[in-house]
Amino acid sequence: MNTYSRLNSLHRSKGVTLVEILLVIALLVIVLSFAIPSMGGATAKADMLAAVENVEYSITSARNSARMNEKDVALKISRQSGDASQVLKFIRSGSADGVGIPDYRLPEDIELVADHASFEFDERGLVRNPGTITLVSRVDESVSETVEVR
Q: Which of 24, 41, 68, 88 gets the highest tally of CB atoms within 10 A of its CB?
C-alpha cells in the first residue's frame, strides 16, 4: 500500500495545473510591459543616427558640388505642403535649378530645426552663413542631435 500511494502521488504531479500556467503568463506580461517601452527608445535612437548621417552627407555633398562646379550651391530646408516631413534640397544660388544631387526627405518622426532656412556654399565650398541644424525625435524628445554647418 505504501508503494501504491507513492506511485499515485508521482502520477498526479506529472501535469501542470491551469493556475500555474496563468501565473507564468501573468509574470511574462509584467516583464514584457517593462521591456517594450525601452525598445521604442532604441528605435528612435537608431532613426536619429541614420538621419544625422544623411544630413552630414547632404552638407558634404553641397560643399563638394560647389567646389567641383565652381558655382554657389544652397542647401535649402523645406517642408512639403500637407506633409509633416521636411526635405533638404540642393539648388544653385540665385536659380531654381538643381545640382544633380537627389533631395533628402527626413523621416516623419524627426523634426529638423536650423539656424537658417538655407545654408549657402561658395565656389570654394566654404559656407557663407555658418550655423547649426538640430534634429529632434518626435517619438522621444529626449533623443536629439546637433550638426554644425561651418
A: 88
For residues 121 and 124, what is the distance between their CA atoms, to the nearest angstrom?
Answer: 8
pLDDT digits (tens, 9 = 90+) for 82-108: 677 899 999 986 666 677 888 899 988
Within a domain: residue 47? yes
Q: Residue 29 — φ and ψ, nearest 5°?
A: -65, -40
Residues 88/55, Cβ–Cβ less than 8 Å: yes
Vertex 23, ends 17 and 27: CA angle to 5°?
Answer: 150
Could you tell me if residue 3 is inside a domain? no
**Residue 99 to residues 56, 67, 118, 124, 129: CA-CA distances in angstroms?**
17, 12, 15, 16, 20
Residue 47's domain is classified under what CATH number?
Answer: 3.55.40.10
The position carrying cell 565652381 is 70
Question: Looking at this protein, which amino acid is placed at residue 96?
Answer: A
Q: What is the count of structural domains for the chain?
A: 1
